[in-house]
Amino acid sequence: TTHTASMGESEYSFSLTTFSPSGKLVQIEYALNAVAAGFTSLGIKATNGVVIATEKKVGSSLIDDSSVKKISLLTDHIGVVYSGMGPDVRVLVRKGRKQAQQYYRTYGEPIPVSQLVREIASIMQEFTQSGGVRPFGASLLVAGVDESGPQLFQVDPSGSYWAWKASAIGKHMVNAKTFLEKRYNAEMEMEDAIHTAILTLKEGFEGQMTETNIEIGIVGLDGSFKELSQAEIKDYLGEVE
User: Fold this and answer.
1) Residue 114: how many CB atoms within 10 A of its CB?
2) How far does the chain reach from its first CA to its final CA, in angstroms?
């Protein structure tokens, strides 16, 4: 019976907009598999800011790794990191920046984090319900600070999004989340969060972790998002040794 059930499911596996008999949109599940195959990324919300971090490994030593970026700025006060397919994320980053600018032009103030997340999530949702398209093959962690304080959101290919205290996506997300559950506490400040982010990435890291193969972005209460330089990352790596 399981054989016929799976056959039944597979008839629906290529049509994006058709539900399978058990109520699944199988293509969305496959998109989540693309996320799970991506390098690990994580985010941690501290009392005075948010940290996002990711593995950045390039396929060849001949690639100039300074040209590979996994953390992007959406606005001055909001940054994003992804696991999954980079080219898909470029589209979302571009659309997200546009939405943020539109909001600023209309209201004369920076877009709230939750609102930008909602806009990006609804773009992702559109791509699960239109003919001739496929879902985005990436999950995002969006970090920002606004009038409501530090915030961290995760957005998945289905268009679902949640606010998190700490979360991880990508290859080692299960172990990373378990590690974060043990380490996280609500009183954590930025410095501690950066150390915890590095230690969490180390959990499933293959090979030697250096300032060239991870990226870290932070946003503090001053509301300006910035990526840590390689020199800064090197110092932090020295502190957690």
Assistant:
1) 16
2) 53
- Whether the Cβ atoms of residue 96 and residue 140 lie closer than 8 Å to each other: no
pTM for the model stands at 0.93
Per the structure block, which two tokens stand in for 129?
A: 């319900």
Output the pLDDT for position 12: 62
The residues, ordered by sequence, that sit 6+ positions from 97 with a Cβ below 8 Å of its Cβ are 74, 75
The runs of H, that is alpha helices, within the chain are 2-10, 26-36, 86-107, 113-126, 173-183, 190-203, 230-240
| Cα dihedral 86→90→96→101 (10° resolution) | 150
Give the list of residues 6+ apart from residue 218 with CB closer than 8 angstroms, or none.
49, 50, 51, 52, 190, 194, 225, 226, 228
Distance, CA of 130 to CA of 107 (rounded, Å): 31
From CA 155, how far away is CA 241, in angstroms rounded?
Answer: 32
Q: Per-10-residue mean pLDDT for the chain, 241 residues long?
A: 54 72 90 96 98 93 90 98 97 98 98 98 94 93 97 98 98 96 96 98 92 96 96 96 79
